[in-house]
Amino acid sequence: MASSRIEQIIEEIEEYIDSCKFQPLSSTKIVVNKEELEELLRELRMKTPDEIKRYQKIISNKDAILEDAQQKADAIIAEANAKAQQIVSESEVMRIAVEQSKQLIDETNTQAQEIMDRATEDSNNIRMSAIRYTDDMLGNLEKIMSHTIDTAGTKYSNFINSLQSCYDIVSKNRSELSPSVEPSSYTQPEEEEFQEQPLDE
Question: What is the tens place of the pLDDT at every residue in 46-98?
Fold first, then answer.
């Protein structure tokens, strides 16, 4: 199966993430360009419905395969019946004609069933291949999105911690300058609350 545009986009996202630099003093966290990553994700979001429709169309071909096989089987049976009738009408020995026609019908019924069985197997293979391919594609997308969410959450949490540290220094300096002035209280939101916020699209 030829590589689709959505596969290419996923590969580009993976290559982009691999090319990102690590954050200072970290061997697991990376720094990403938000606009560049969002552009790749935007195109991926636009292409995904088209890809899913493409594989739904492949799956729908199962009905066409079965219908074509049924038509071929019906044609073989009709031809066998016609030949059987011809044998009966032209044969001088009715018993031989009946036996020959029955044997011919049995053989053609067997051939027709074999055609139907092969067509059913082929259509099921096509359907399962399309489903597996779509599942793999969406699985890769899920991994990319999960990694992006984790990276963004960590970046936002680091920003809040840095801001809290600066706030503490300012409050301390203010207190030293004027001990009688009570610095306004500030409580850092729980880290989990920031990590659960969705990414801006």
Answer: 877 776 777 667 777 777 777 878 888 888 898 888 887 777 677 666 777 77
Neighbours of 97 (CB within 10 A): 18
Residue written as token pair 């096989």: 69
Encoded tokens for 191: 């880290």
SS3 186: coil
Q: Residue 58: is it exposed, middle or buried by C-beta count within 10 angstroms (0-12/13-18/19+)? A: middle
Output DSSP code: residue 190.
P
Q: How many CB atoms within 10 Å of residue 60?
A: 11
Burial 104-126 (b: 16+ CB within 10 A, else e): beeebeeebeebeeebeeebeeb
The SS3 of residue 22 is strand
User: Over the stretch 96-117, which tens digit does the pLDDT of each residue have?
Assistant: 777 878 888 998 899 889 998 9
pTM: 0.38
Q: Copy the structure tokens of residue 36.
A: 């560049």
Using N-to-C axis directions, what is the helix angle for 5-19 and 94-177, rounded to 10°?
30
